[in-house]
Amino acid sequence: MLVDVPKDSDFSIHNLPFGVFSDSKNNNPRPGVAIGEKILDLGILARHGLFEGCGDFSADAKSTFEQPTLNKFMSYSRKEWRFVRQQLTSFISNDQHPVRLDMPQGGLEALVNQKDSKMHLPCTIGDYTDFYASKEHATNVGTMFRGKDNALNPNWTHLPIGYHGRASSIVVSGTPIKRPLGQRVLTPGSPPMFGPSTKLDIELEMAFIVGKGNDLGSPIDISVAEDYIFGLVLMNDWSARDIQAWEYVPLGPFLGKNFGTSISPWVVTLDALEPFKVDLPTQDPIPMLYLADDKKSGYDINLSVSIKPQNSSCFRTISNSNLKYLYWSLKQQLAHHTIGGCNMRPGDMCGTGTISAPTETGFGSLLELTWNGKNKILVADAKSSSDSQDHYGYFLEDFDTVKLEGYCEANGIRVGFGSCVGQILPSLI
Amino acid sequence: MLVDVPKDSDFSIHNLPFGVFSDSKNNNPRPGVAIGEKILDLGILARHGLFEGCGDFSADAKSTFEQPTLNKFMSYSRKEWRFVRQQLTSFISNDQHPVRLDMPQGGLEALVNQKDSKMHLPCTIGDYTDFYASKEHATNVGTMFRGKDNALNPNWTHLPIGYHGRASSIVVSGTPIKRPLGQRVLTPGSPPMFGPSTKLDIELEMAFIVGKGNDLGSPIDISVAEDYIFGLVLMNDWSARDIQAWEYVPLGPFLGKNFGTSISPWVVTLDALEPFKVDLPTQDPIPMLYLADDKKSGYDINLSVSIKPQNSSCFRTISNSNLKYLYWSLKQQLAHHTIGGCNMRPGDMCGTGTISAPTETGFGSLLELTWNGKNKILVADAKSSSDSQDHYGYFLEDFDTVKLEGYCEANGIRVGFGSCVGQILPSLI
């Protein structure tokens, strides 16, 4: 093995997620693959001929991995994504690999320490869509605002509800988020007031990133939808509930969401996630033909949210959920998105919507965890607090740091997403 | 004058709108400016030194006008946009202009016929937002679906309601639009059915294109908002009313809109529109401080919609409206969009929403003109129809062609937008 991979690493040889990094030796953002605590520089490997033997792609591999984003690589097909993955597996695990033997330091020169690197957005995200595909989340929110009997809107079980989000304000994990200003109604029925959001929330989500795109007017059939998905990331869809509540009728969320959306830097491919496929929840009514999916189209991905207030020395987990609870599959989301003719481009991103577990220990937002600010939750216990007191909260306070994590584990194999982190900074006024 | 400009031309010397074109002699898309029936190739003019004398921009002008989009030019400030405009005015109108004297054909070599050219999108549109800023339109739609007493939602007069649209499916005038497939409910209360939209509509809009951007977390103050707007285009926000009606609660329009949005190819700058500024409608309640705008922030731009069914020999005008009716100004839209911290990038686009006049001859959608399919309208009279009969319609039929036009006129000066055209093609099934 070229690299020692710690047993509990998210970035085992079974993973090989793609990202864009830079470091002090070379501050050009460039494509890499995470392995253990290292990053493999794909440009260096391409220049040493590791990606020879895959048709037209091989002639283009050097230029593909010299780009500051992964869009060009994403625009290839699953065949090329798999080829690169196989070449990397062989390069890392085979000490007699001819390319390694040919490199002056046996391949070590292509390695960079993750801790010495800065991560960037993996791709230019042309368009960003956010779905609302967790039945538990939609039911919780609906129950809160419309009562238990009208919790789910009539359309919800017929199609994956989604909306267009803001692409410009998507940021990579580690980027601080400024508390947004805006209009909100402080007491029901009174006029709106201007000021900082007082109901700043998180949303535990994952997002898929589109690989190959489709032409305008040519929908992606669900039977081949997987070939159009490059991979997945963790996503925190920061939400200002008070701004959102006032503005969202009738055209949906706008300023309540577009001040920032954080994603994890490493894109885990569908091939790496293949061993962790599980059955979807039962879908009733049976979806229309264009949404008819294989039963085994869910993924068993453990997800968690943890929080560290300013006065605390460590993160405290406030929620444990799993992607397997998602009602609408990723393929159903993509097939629905394009059925009217909408075109997708390499690097476009689709969030799942908040992923809530069936029980309250796994709700994916503070809105649900505190039941819209009714029940406070423990965010830091006495042991970890500077003032030796338990700390409870409703929504996010200034300087809170939030961390999402996700991983799959089965038969001794671990494939993880790393983390998606963001700290809240005070508003401008 | 370098060029003869017909008296009724939209592209007088007072206009000088920017666009991206290609032609049979050079099929690289490149920036140009419309004048009369010609296009001035900005790359050629830059290479002949027309843009010398404006600081850093001058050194960069050649590269700026060799781009396949206008984004780089848009990323400069109003100072550079004005400088280019002034240089062009002088180049066109002054027969003794030194750059013209220096060119072998006296400047004629920079001219291309519009009729021999193909127009492209003027810029890469990173994000597209659509507002809902016409009180007449919002009131009409509200009255139709909620009754006269609840026509406007409580938030509508407090802020410019808007939502994120789909950037990938924005197309330039002339691109056909395929009728979308999707889920829709045919009779109220019955389950949704899958099929082609039967309520395909237009929306008469304009859109502003962002010039200089702002950083995430740093709102654009309304007092300087004009400096961030490069110019305006006509926009047809094609809408499938049946798909939209079923899907839009609670997150807003999605597949009902994202199958295509058409814009006119020539971006008319705010400087060209300056002489046509008029007072905004009275705003009640008085907007919050961050939305406090100069009274004279409207624009008197005559707008029309015309339609040509397959069996007709000519376009028939079905609506005459005007941008001056818009309740929320462009500056208010931009200030609101960024107040929570959302960042804008050069080339981002914001639609106004449907611009409806106070009376029904100027409603900006078939939804309003037919009052949701209750009253049919004349789309082709007997004289222009192949079968010598009047033709009436509700929503768009296959092969209908729709044309939006817009122009300003005052004191013998005309500044126009050309047209935004699109033909409906049959759905896939």
UniProtKB/TrEMBL annotation, chains A, B:
Residues 14-122 form the Fumarylacetoacetase N-terminal domain. Pathway: Amino-acid degradation; L-phenylalanine degradation; acetoacetate and fumarate from L-phenylalanine: step 6/6. Gene3D superfamilies: Fumarylacetoacetase, N-terminal domain, Fumarylacetoacetase-like, C-terminal domain. It comes from the Eukaryota. Substrate binds at residues 132, 146, 244, 248, 354. The keyword Hydrolase applies. Its EC number is 3.7.1.2. Residues 128-415 form the Fumarylacetoacetase-like C-terminal domain. Mg(2+) binds at residues 237, 257, 261. InterPro entries: Fumarylacetoacetase, Fumarylacetoacetase-like_C, Fumarylacetoacetase_C_sf, Fumarylacetoacetase_N, Fumarylacetoacetase_N_sf. It catalyses: 4-fumarylacetoacetate + H2O = acetoacetate + fumarate + H(+). It is an enzyme of class 3 (hydrolase). Ca(2+) binds at residues 130, 203, 205, 237. Its cofactor is Mg(2+); Ca(2+). The keyword Ion transport does not apply. Keywords: Calcium, Hydrolase, Magnesium, Metal-binding, Phenylalanine catabolism, Tyrosine catabolism. The active site is at 137 (proton acceptor). GO terms for molecular function: fumarylacetoacetase activity; metal ion binding. NCBIfam families: fum_ac_acetase. Belongs to the FAH family. This is Fumarylacetoacetase. It comes from Smittium megazygosporum.
